[in-house]
Write a structure and sequence with these properties.
The protein has about 575 residues and is an all-beta fold. The protein is built from no helices and 50 strands. The strands form 13 sheets. Strands 17, 18, 21, 22, 23 and 24 form a 6-stranded antiparallel β-sheet that branches. About 25% of the residues are buried.
Length: about 575
């Protein structure tokens, strides 16, 4: 049995209605002995017929059919709104307001605390319940006097008082239950990021909850305890939180505002609100912004737009490149009639933004501006930092030009080309030898341009060709640059012809060659002009190779050779033939 206070023990039995049962009490295995009045025959057992309603039997004295003492047994009951591990007590005029002398017993089945004691019938008492060492602060009609105590006029029969809530005159309300709250936001005026839209709030530690799209409206349903006071806001993609207006928000502690709600007692679908607004979204139009960078190279971090419609963030709104039109664009939905201020950024930071001219700018600093029309609009392509389209860049063609140097002794500086396309700078474009005698260069020239040009056997105008024939204008070669990439026919140096009249290798004799040392310079005279492949090898008299080089032939060939004075053997190989020279270096 459970001790409920004042030496009184209690046991609760569940049994079938109308059934007669017999029972007796035992203390430390010592059975009670009942003499008369409430026992059955010689068994000395108590008996009862189970009634058809819950019943609290009168308190009786051990081994007696009567109460142990005169007075009334009163049972006090109290419940806590929020359960706690602290002890619960009752204190009052009947126990000299002792905070700890009358502990209450917790009934885990009913979820309440109770205490029973015998009081003198007809007396008036005051009392309060105590949690830990703190008196309750009773509120309501049951509070009496300046200390808001509870009162009781003790009845003449045993009484169980109604359960009340701690600090209240009434029972505790039922604990809050979760209800489904559906949050909805309209993103029609926003460019939704690739990761979607999220709900964040105090009800789950601000952990983002993905929202589901139905057209431009996104929603999420969350179970939350009724009666809770929550804060929340919507988020676009992974980082762009909405700017909640102060008129429908509470301070977030960081200079901004959160939405708020007291959760109702039943499932609720909240009204649709516009992102960063207290109201539904107004009618909107799609607006496409377009910009041409002109001669500017796109920043590696991309091209962006920033404006009052997206919080002036230079990195959050990238533009897309239209490879066909050669411009950058961004499309978004904006409220009809709104004044939009914006500018383009070649990059993703301030400092890379355009300088808007006064003719199409407003404010300080100057920004572009637009009043959103009532229909979808594609804005004209304008040039970065300009009010007008960019001046079209000239189209170009690649022209490949070749020259045949047969019959020429090619300069050690090589063959060059110059003309009106590079202000006659003969050192800028060196031509590449692609086969014997043939030199070539590929130039990128403006389509349709008329150019004059010449070749130079070297890298100065002194060595430029003097052209014979009718292919010149003012003594220069000329060309109208075609609209497509073009390779011109190979021409001869100094001639208009494509067939160069030069002694062929078949008519050349190695007997014409002369070789020797001039101090520390080895020379060979008489090689054919025209750049034929030739191999030159120098040996000492023991046959050890000093050097071997492959060259293109020219009439005079020289090489510095710091060698000791001694005899040497020189071998020249040309067109499958060879000639050997015995040379003596004197110095």
């Amino acid at each position: 049995m459970s001790h409920i206070g004042g030496g009184v023990f209690e046991y609760e039995l569940f049994s079938s209605c109308g059934k007669r049962i017999s029972y007796s009490f035992t203390i430390d295995n010592q059975n009670e002995t009942i003499q008369s009045g409430c026992c059955i025959g010689s068994t000395s057992a108590r008996s009862i017929v189970i009634p058809d309603a819950d019943t609290l039997l009168p308190t009786v004295c051990f081994s007696s059919c009567d109460s142990c003492e005169t007075g009334t047994l009163v049972t006090f009951k109290v419940a806590l709104q929020n359960p706690t591990a602290q002890g619960v007590y009752i204190a009052g005029s009947f126990n000299n307001w002792s905070l700890t002398s009358s502990p209450m017993t917790f009934d885990s089945v009913q979820g309440l605390y109770q205490y029973s004691t015998v009081l003198t019938a007809g007396t008036n008492i005051e009392y309060k319940f105590v949690l830990g060492n703190q008196f309750e602060n009773v509120q309501g009609l049951c509070a009496s006097g300046s200390f808001n105590n509870r009162t009781l006029s003790v009845p003449t029969s045993d009484t169980v008082l109604p359960v009340v809530c701690f600090s209240s005159c009434s029972p505790c309300p039922p604990p809050p239950a979760p209800v489904n709250v559906t949050f909805r936001v309209d993103m029609s005026l926003q460019s939704v990021g690739p990761n979607g839209v999220f709900l964040t709030g105090s009800f789950n530690g601000w952990t983002p909850i993905p929202m589901t799209a139905n057209g431009s409206v996104y929603s999420a349903t969350v179970p939350i305890l009724s009666g809770s006071n929550i804060e929340f806001k919507f988020r676009n993609d992974t980082s762009l939180f909405e700017n909640v207006p102060s008129s429908c928000g509470v301070s977030d502690g960081f200079g901004g505002f959160n939405r708020f709600l007291t959760v109702p007692t039943s499932d609720t679908i909240l009204p649709v609100v516009c992102f960063s607004s207290c109201s539904p979204c107004p009618p909107a139009s799609l607006v496409t912004f377009r910009v041409d960078l002109g001669i500017l190279a796109p920043n590696p971090n991309g091209v962006h737009i920033a404006g009052n419609f997206q919080g002036w963030n230079p990195a959050s709104t990238p533009l897309t490149f239209d490879s066909t039109g050669g411009f950058w664009y961004f499309t978004t939905s904006l409220p009809e009639g709104d004044s939009v201020f914006y500018k383009f950024i070649n990059g993703n930071t301030w400092g890379n933004d355009e300088n808007v001219p006064p003719a199409c700018g407003i404010g300080n600093p100057l920004n572009r501006w637009l009043v959103v029309p009532t229909s979808d609009t594609v804005l004209p392509v304008i040039c970065f930092s300009s009010c007008t389209p960019c001046t079209p860049l000239p189209k170009t063609s690649e022209v490949t030009i070749s020259v045949n140097m047969k019959g020429q002794s090619v300069s050690p500086e090589g063959v060059h080309i110059a003309g009106t396309f590079n202000q006659w700078n003969y050192s800028e474009y060196k031509m590449t030898q692609i086969q014997p005698n043939i030199y070539q260069v590929a130039l990128t020239l403006d389509t349709g341009a008329f150019i004059l040009y010449r070749f130079s056997n070297g890298n100065t105008f002194i060595n430029q060709e003097i052209i014979s024939g009718t292919c010149t204008m003012f003594g220069n070669r000329f060309l109208q640059v075609p609209s497509t990439d073009t390779t011109l026919p190979v021409v001869c140096f100094g001639l208009c012809d494509t067939s160069c009249a030069t002694l062929s290798i078949e008519n050349f004799s190695l007997d014409r060659l002369k070789a020797g040392f001039s101090d520390d310079v080895l020379f060979i005279n008489g090689l054919p002009s025209g750049g034929y492949p030739v191999r030159i090898t120098l040996f000492d008299l023991l046959g050890k190779t000093i050097f071997q080089i492959n060259e293109f032939s020219q009439p005079v060939w020289k090489r510095h050779a710091s060698l000791p004075a001694a005899p040497y053997l020189l071998r020249i190989e040309l067109d499958g033939k060879e000639r050997n020279f015995k040379l003596l270096k004197i110095h």
